[in-house]
Fold each of these.
Amino acid sequence: MKNDVILRTVARCMVPFILLFAFYVQAHGEISPGGGFQAGVIFASAFILIALAVGKEKAREKFKQKISDFTCSLGLMIYAGIGFITILFGGLFLEYGKLPFGSAEKGNHLGMIGIELGVGIAVASVMVTIFFEIARKEDD
Amino acid sequence: MNLAVNFPALLVTVPLIFVPVIPLLGLINRKICWYAAVLAITASFAMIMTILAKVSTEGPISYHLGNWAPPIGIEYRIDMLNAFVLAVISFISLVSLLFGKELVEKEVPEYKHPAFYSVFILFVVGMTGMTVTGDLFNVYVFLEITSLSGYALIATSKKRYAPMASFNYLVIGTLAATFIVLGIGYLYMVTGTLNMADLAERIKPLNGSSVVLTAYALILMGILIKMAVFPLHLWLPDAYTYSPSAVSAAMAATSTKVGAYVLIRLMFSVFDIEYHVGSVPITGIIIFFASLSIVMGSVIAIAQTNIKKMLAYSSVGQIGYILLAAAMVNAEALTGGVMHIFSHALMKGGLFFVVGLIVYNIGSERISDFAGIGRRMPFTAAAFTIFSLSIIGIPLTVGFVSKWYLVLGAISSGHWYAIGVILLSSLLTAIYFGKVIFVMYFKGGHDDHGHAPAAKLSEPMGMVIPMAFVAFLCIYFGIFATFPVELAAKAAEAVLGGVTWK
Amino acid sequence: MIDFIAAKYNYLICVCLMMIGFYAVIAKQNLMKKIIGLSIFQTSVFLFYISMAKVTDGTAPIVWEGAVRYDNPLPHVLILTAIVVSVSTTAVAIALMINIYKAYGTIEDSKIREIEAGESGGSVSR
């Protein structure tokens, strides 16, 4: 399967579109269906497709474990960080309206985008990690 | 900016932020992971203590996440009962982290340490979240966080059967959680709300509705599985036996208690305590299963040859006390039950640590191999004796205080056979702990030819001090019981005052 | 009777799925089949939630001109969370199963019991 020409070519064609769709879903999260969870999973599926087409060792080289661990933590930290920032500006936890963007409406909007971004990053890296960990060969 | 107002959210999120940070720190140096974990739990513990002080003087706190007012937003609501349970969970987690350092180093492979501490914090976060929240669906999510990290913690053990024990727990635990979420779905269907306070209001006119009863039955079923009450306890002995001792201690001391808390909260604050199935009151059914759990847990524990399995079955019996206290519906009994959450956490946590240390030194979990431990590990054996006496319920120990209030409650509500069950179970408990103490002090130590007793075994200071501290607390709160009992009584009052019952 | 089935068929399917999953969890010896059963069991509850979110004549809960009623979006959001939980559960279960396979060389429940019973003189668990 690994060196199947059709699979590799199709994967190569598909991946940019999958990633683009992931970004679309990500960007529309706060006003329409979509958001971090879905976008993260779609983003991760692109990586899993690459791994299936070219072999997981090669794919893992592009997205090393240290990096995925880091991005996973980063996503969660963005989420909790925004929560802490709202507290610093005198609101309650995750009260986006208190973010310093002028108006409460703007704060709500941008705060939610930030949260979705954090969720998206975390979910994508967790999905990739789950795939690589479960697909891993015997103890290494 | 007023930080103290945000403590209800921060006590969950501050440790949560450490969960991803600890593995990153582990990439730099594995040694600092433990310190980071201690820091996280200490921060949470400090906030909980502040909240406890505030709640006991000023009354319940309600915190609205994101400033969305309930019932639309998620509410964290803390009254005396949550605050008390939170303090117990957090204190025991902190002690088991301090106590467990050496045991974890011995029982968990070194490369797993960063992940271990990270998941351990997640386990505690899940439990505090479950306790602090006033939203029913949040309870489910935090329950699953707790359970999933619990499965992972059990599987970190080096024992061969550990993943299998964890897998069985996962299957049963997931079934239980799914029952709970189905029950929540039924409640949402008829009331259109998930906030517990709001739910209690909207359920009242639906008294006797079969949908509400179904929901109650499903949720009760799920929680009883999570609490490991007798016929539903099958996951627990394996899970406690095959996990690392530090994990068994933390889980035995806290996770089933949180289940008990959720049950008490739902029984008293959400559902009507007077529900009947046909002509049988629900409390009557719960008392029956609680009594069954108390007696059967103790009887099966007597038959065990493996010390950890014996302690696990003893847990099945002890959780029955809390359930019994909740179902008797009166202030004394509930005080006893809440008090037992505290005392059992202290005693069982201590016992698992002591046993963990002994087992590590002699390399066997069979009770018969404990011969001569009384001479070879004097401090450890003494601590074991104190914890056992406390669990049996000997006066001047903390276990006696909670049982005393339970009996008082049984008398005042007229459940005479419950008194019989409590006394019988104390006797059975005395038998199986007596057996171990007898083996430790009066058997072996020198072989048949009268040679000198075997050499002393190591008792590292890092473990003796916390052990002695917990044992000291067991006796201290047994003699000067006023402080915890007052808190527990306030908690019982807060719960009973919230609903109308006869 | 027919009316009842026609009106509530998705709840009936939900119950059927639940029992299929439950049966697989209890009766199957293969751990992978148990995991699949568990997933079916959880999915049936998702179906239950989504069914109850449907409002007669309701449309997708997005604000648009001409919409009369909207479906209830809250159960959808709850189930999104529950799906994440379900995925995590499955991932943990599979990871455990891989570890079991490494330790015993089999994922048949009965065979693992035999191996354990053979090693410790028949007194493993239960």
Amino acid sequence: MSEKRGFSSPHEVPAVPGTEGWERMYPYYYTFTTEDKDMEEHENKSFWYYDGLHYPEPMYPFDLIWDEAWYMALSQNNSRIFSIPASMGIDHRILNGYLYIAPVGIEDPGVIEQRVADFMKRAGYYYQNWDELYAKWKDKVTALIKTVEGMEIKDLPQLEDEAVVFEGKGMSSGFELVRKYNELINYGLEAWQYHFEFLNLGYAAYVILADFCKKVFPGMDDRTLSKMVGGVDVILFKPDENLRELAKLALKLGVQDTIKGSAKLDDALNALGGSENGREWVKAFEDAQYPWFYMSTGTGWYHNHWTWYDRMEIPFGNIKNYIDMLEKGESIDRPVEQVRATKDKLVKEYTELLTNEDDKATFQQLLGVAQTCFPYVEDHCFYIEHWFHGVFWNKIRELGQIFVNHGFFNDVEEIWYLNRFELQQALYDLVTSWATGVKPRGPSYWQAEIDWRKDVIEKFRQFSPPPALGVTPETVTEPFTIMLWGVTTSSVEQWLDASGVSPEDMTELKGFPASSGAIEGIARVIRSPEQLNELQDGEILVASTTSPSWTPVFNKIGAAITDVGGIMSHAAIVCREYGLPAVVGTGLASTVIKTGQKLRVDGDKGTVTLIK
Amino acid sequence: MGKDSSNVLWLHELGKDDPMIAGKKCCHLGEMLQAKLPVPPGFALTLKAYETFLQGSGSKETILRILEKHKQELLINVGKFEEISSYIINDVILNKEMPGELKEDIALYYDQLCNTCGCPDTPVAVRSSGPVSMPGQFDTFLNVCGYNSLLNNIVKVWASSFNARAMAYRLQRGLVLESSPIGVAVLKMVNARCSGVMFTLDPVNGDPSRIFIEGSWGLGESLVSGQVTPDKFVLDKVTFDITQRTICNKVVELVRGPQGDVIARDVPVEKQKTACLSDEEILELARIGKHIEKHYGVAQDIEWAIDNDLSFPHNIIILQTRQESIWSKKTKAPVAPKGSATELIARGLMQGIRI
């Protein structure tokens, strides 16, 4: 770019009327500041983009925990652990309830050079021992999750059990509860330490392969590359595969009518209990659940992204759908053999296209390492975002119930309006009140604050966060920024171009062509997973981001469009798998497009046309 | 008679080692026929036929004399080529009678071609075929109907080896000035619904994973001479996905006029912004392109047409193919020096990705 163009300064965006003072809901270091002049200058010089990929909704104070977790974890793996040559971490801020992030680069060539040696040694060790280290990872993460599953969060007794005295324990349930809360928070942060143990390196391998391919095959699209790299047996599809197997088993055992005839899962389970075959199916149904029903109905990043365990009617409904399809003679199997054959053919023929032997060797090296890394890239989110989070949110709800019991909250779900530090204070307030017998300050203090915060979060929903703030850099060296969020020249240009046009005047949006096909249809803008049931058959799903676990709606929709996301966003991967046209990373689709708008989506060109 | 001593040969008698017999285009066509590629039927006039004509008609001697006389002048004054060239072509070559043996040979082959095509005076294309690649230097004539017109046009192709551009080229490179034997391909004229070019790489950036097709309504000349902005289709050579599709406003097409000549005609409005190829045809063309590239072992620049008289897939006709002249001849430097995966990634991360 000959001339640097910029977005609005992060300090110039006004507050949403009626939300003034919102900053206190979040830790102080999340606020853009004009009081610290050095920091103000850093913020003004940085390139901030809205992380709608993970945060399509305003931040609930407690849910910020995962952002805090990766604020540190992702950054440290770049900066301090693997010594990614030209990249430190990713900085975080909140503006009007929405999360903005900025990659922090290293510009001094001498420093970069120094970091390379450490990178070679450290990253080299992981790349070479990947499978072995990943097997260890699965063990330690599974052990961590099981520890959290086993934690008991109990309300405080009127009088401590005699055992405290006769076993000489010397500590109270109040202290135990405080300790458990701290442990729970630490386990959460620990899970996210592991989340990034491999991810930076996995993305780095993919990004460098993609960059190489752009040079030798300028016309190759990202979908082709991801087919060459992507795994065939992806864990994320396993929960859904279990449901397909259950549908087949239902037909085999002849219990399909009982299942289809039951409006609710409990009715079905009762009815099935009356026959031998029915009991066999119920047994299989129970066996298929753990841990797969920790599949989130969203991305798992928000407390209201319920798992299948929390919403058993969802997997039950899917089983019924699959039974219907089987009865109509349709195949419900994933075309695994075909996916594998396509992958092999692409790898073979693309390799043959390279006539220069050095290029061929480089391609094979990079492809090999990317393929090694990819199972982790595709599978880690089941372990952390789905399984761990699913367990974690409900442990916090158990704590929430104790607060309700003690008059702090009217409802368990109010706990999300306190951030993790505030919750620690509130809990201490609760246990000291329990200990002293004096009424706690919390109920009067928090109820008014929670009511105000509920109102603020609702007002935040009316705010459309600009896609970016600050100044665009000339190069991005931070692997996640490129791969996950799809921050590229074209997306940044598009955001800049659009910043001068009012939404009503826009007729076309550009994004990444994520999945082939073109279709016209009616838009349905979805802002939270609860709205998913509003989708009508054939409508085009428009969302800030979509989640692979929105499986049921993929059977219904005609196409998907997202604001945020690159070639490897969860949305892109799953749309390809389901053969739906998809355009991702449009920056503005959910702002510009209104429900009911007629659209043309071209998944080959990456364009969305608004038909007036 | 052996191939070396013939004036005329069927295309299928020629193979890839025969450029010195009938020029590159003819032997490519022969090779394509042998590889079972859909090229139009036809025959070739050999380099020997060119010599037979120049010698037998007495032109050679005259040309030699003229050039001897003006050689020094030509060396210092390039502008002089226009005048000399025009004189040689019009006053020396074009008014000469073709030697009898040559006329008989041509009559024999043309009759048989007309029989094959089931049409007397079958319209043919008369194309130059140089022994080395000099794209666009020599003339090509289309829609030539009947024996006499064929003879005239063959002579015109030969005469084009004395156009100013070709002579200046030869002089610059120290080649023989007074003779530049070229072959001539005589091919059944395709009744083209549309036509165009195909590259088995992306001509813009050399990407070997693409197949690049351009086409417009009617005969191919409008494309080559840039009168029309063609439709453009880009495919992935491995998956055959059509990755790019640009439909242009094609207002003019070249068609065969009542006298068999080529005339420009307005394209009916409803066809102007319609793709000139169906997806089925695009895919079949690409398949043929990939096959041709594999056959020659190097990227190709292919001219094709869709014949109105035939049905899919026989309507796809390959008019000519040659090695792509820019990217495929470059020795490509490696994009990055070799290294272990970790080294490659480290280097990549040092540089960053430009946005």
